[in-house]
Design goal:
Elements (H helix, E strand, L loop, with lengths): L19 E5 L10 H13 L3 E4 L16 H13 L3 E6 L15 H6 L4 E3 L3 H12 L3 E3 L3 H11 L2 H16 L5 E2 L7 E4 L2 E10 H8 L14 E5 L5 H13 L8 E5 L16 H9 L6 E5 L10 E3 L2 E5 L4 E4 L15
Length: about 350
C-alpha cells in the first residue's frame, strides 16, 4: 500500500475455546506487590475459556530502569510470540514507558503473515497506532492484564464484571459486529451530532508521540475518522497542549467525531480557582469545528475499559450517547474477511 492509501483493516483470526493467550511485559516491569493482580488476570482469561501462559520476561522484580528489560529484549520476546503459531493473542501485563524504544524492531512480516490481537492501553497505544500504520493491524485498545483484569475488574460490581467478560469474549471470538457498546450514566454529550467513521486513538500523549515518528499515520488517514483519546496524570494544561498539537497537525480538521475517556488524576481540572473543566478545554481547542463529541466514556486509566478496536468502523451519536461497532474486530477462523 502507498503511504496515503487507507489500508484494509488487518483483522486477527477469531479465537476459539482453549486457544493460548500470553500475558507479556511489553513495557513496564512486574512489581512483587502486583503478583496477586496478575494471578487474578489469569483467572479471568481462563474463565473466558482460554489457556494462559506468562511470557519469560514477566518475572517479579526483573527490570531495567523503568522497563521490564532492555527494549531489544522486549522486542525479541514479542517477535517470538508473533511468530509462534500456537499463540493466538497477546495481552500486555501493564503500560509504562518503553514501547518507543523498540518500534523499529518489531517483525511486521510476522504480523501480516499471522495477525493476532494485541491488547492493552497507555504505552501500548503506541503499538496499536504504529502497527496500524505499518500493516493495518486492528489494535485492541482494551484493559491491561494486571491493573485491568486483575485490578479494576475485581473492584467492579459483579454484574459489570460479567458484562465485561462477555463483551471481551465476544469481541475476540465472534466474527460479527458487536453493535452498541454498553453505555452508562457517566457518558456525556459535549457537542451534539451523529457520524460514522474508523476508530483511531489512544492515550493523548502517545498519539502525539507516534505522530512524531517515521511511523506516523498519514494525515489523509484521519479523514472522516472518529478520534478517541484519554489522558492520565499531569496537568490540565498538558491536555490542552496535546490537543493543540493535534490542531496544528491538521488532524482535528479531518476527523468527523471525538470520544473522550474518563480523566484520571489530572491536576487543574475544574478546581475552586476557576480552572477549566475537561469539556471546556476540548471545546476551546475545537473552536467552531462542528463535530459530535461524546465525553466521560469508560476507557483508559480510570477504570474497567470498554474495548476500542483501532481501525474498526463505528457509529457515534453524541446526543443519544451511543457508540456502536459496525464491523467485527476479528475474522472467521476459516475463510475470508468478514462483512461488517
Amino acid at each position: 500500500m502507498t503511504r496515503a492509501a487507507l489500508p484494509q483493516p488487518l483483522r486477527p483470526r477469531a479465537l476459539a475455546p482453549g486457544d493460548l493467550v500470553v500475558i507479556a511485559s511489553l513495557s513496564g516491569p512486574l512489581d512483587a506487590g502486583h503478583v496477586p493482580g496478575l494471578e487474578q488476570a489469569v483467572a479471568v482469561l481462563e474463565r473466558m475459556g482460554f489457556r494462559v501462559r506468562l511470557a519469560p520476561l514477566l518475572e517479579a522484580g526483573r527490570h531495567h530502569w523503568w522497563s521490564a528489560a532492555q527494549p531489544a529484549d522486549i522486542a525479541e520476546e514479542l517477535n517470538a510470540l508473533l511468530r509462534d503459531p500456537e499463540v493466538r493473542a497477546i495481552i500486555a501485563h501493564d503500560g509504562g514507558h518503553t514501547a518507543l524504544g523498540y518500534l523499529d524492531l518489531i517483525d511486521v512480516e510476522a504480523i501480516t503473515a499471522d495477525p493476532k490481537p494485541i491488547l492493552g492501553y497507555s504505552d501500548i497505544s503506541l503499538l496499536h497506532l504504529v502497527l496500524y500504520a505499518r500493516t493495518g493491524l486492528v489494535g485492541f485498545h482494551a484493559d491491561l492484564a494486571t491493573p485491568g483484569l486483575g485490578g479494576h475488574w475485581q473492584a467492579a460490581p459483579a454484574a459489570r464484571q460479567a458484562e465485561l467478560e462477555k463483551l471481551y469474549s465476544t469481541l475476540l471470538t465472534g466474527p460479527e459486529a458487536i453493535g452498541a457498546l454498553p453505555a452508562t450514566s457517566s457518558w456525556e454529550c459535549w457537542r451534539a451530532g451523529r457520524t460514522e467513521g474508523r476508530l483511531i486513538g489512544g492515550l493523548t500523549n502517545r498519539i502525539v508521540l507516534a505522530q512524531a515518528t517515521r511511523y506516523a499515520l498519514p494525515l489523509e488517514w484521519f479523514d472522516g475518522t472518529v478520534l478517541f483519546w484519554e489522558e492520565a496524570g499531569g496537568h490540565a494544561s498538558h491536555v490542552w497542549s496535546y490537543l493543540q498539537v493535534l490542531r496544528h497537525s491538521g488532524i482535528l480538521d479531518r476527523i468527523s467525531g471525538m470520544i473522550v475517556g474518563v480523566p484520571h488524576e489530572i491536576d487543574g481540572l475544574g478546581g475552586p480557582d476557576a480552572s477549566p473543566t475537561l469539556p471546556e478545554i476540548v471545546l476551546d481547542v475545537l473552536g467552531d469545528r462542528d463535530i459530535p463529541v461524546l465525553g466521560n466514556v469508560e476507557f483508559g486509566h480510570a477504570g474497567p475499559n470498554l474495548p476500542m478496536p483501532v481501525g474498526i468502523r463505528v457509529a457515534l451519536d453524541a446526543q443519544q450517547r451511543t457508540l456502536s461497532l459496525l464491523e467485527p474486530a476479528v475474522r472467521a477462523a476459516h475463510g475470508g474477511e468478514p462483512v461488517g
